[in-house]
Amino acid sequence: MGLYREDKFKLQMIIAGGVFLLSLFFIFYALIQLQQSNNRIEEALRDWDYQETIRGTQEMPIIQLDNNSPDKASTPHTSDTNVNTDNPQAFSIPLPNDLIGKMIIPKLNRELPIVQGTSDAQLSKGVGHYINSSMPGEQNNTVLAGHRDTVFRNLDELVPKDEIIVKTINGTFTYRISDSKIVSPDEVSVLAPSDQPILTLITCYPFNFIGNAPERYILTAELKKQGE
After folding, report:
1. What positions carry a catalytic annotation?
2. CA-based Rg of the chain, rounded to a whole angstrom?
3. Checking CA distances to 44, which of 10, 21, 100, 160 falls within 20 to 30 Å?
4. Domains recognised in the chain with CATH numbers
């Protein structure tokens, strides 16, 4: 009986050790993935800032972030880059993987690149723009998504009247937070068109949840009018 108990104890220790090592592996893997994502985000932000310094008044191509063709940039669909929220044709339409702008969140002291598309690969490079939503500054709903542990960490610290600044090739647009809510992942009303220029930010919730978070955190912001 004593020998049986000893063997059973050894087996339990082996299993516990295996579980511990497996947990360490997943923790280190997650940390490596997070660091790689942060590096891609920083690189995209540097690319956008570099383009801003040389753009001036001339029209520049939107930067292509497709890893399969890093040297090829897509050109805007329209040559008119003047800011005109009353004329949708005045907005350049990017292609998937294009680096389309930069988001500045003053309260969080954060600057983030904005990428066209919301696939896992695109979200690893920055804030993702829902392709079927309007471009920033347009008279509609601009929807942006981001990971809760990278670009949108601490997003819940923003409150009504806090500002979010979005810079694109079409201009600079300042939004003011108006509302926040928690919804289920299948809540599609947050993607609905709007007759007013609004910005909708989406990330997973709870922020500190381990694994696939069960809900979504939504921030809504209104485009600040000139003179406000």
Report:
1. 147, 204
2. 22
3. 160
4. 2-223 (2.40.260.10)
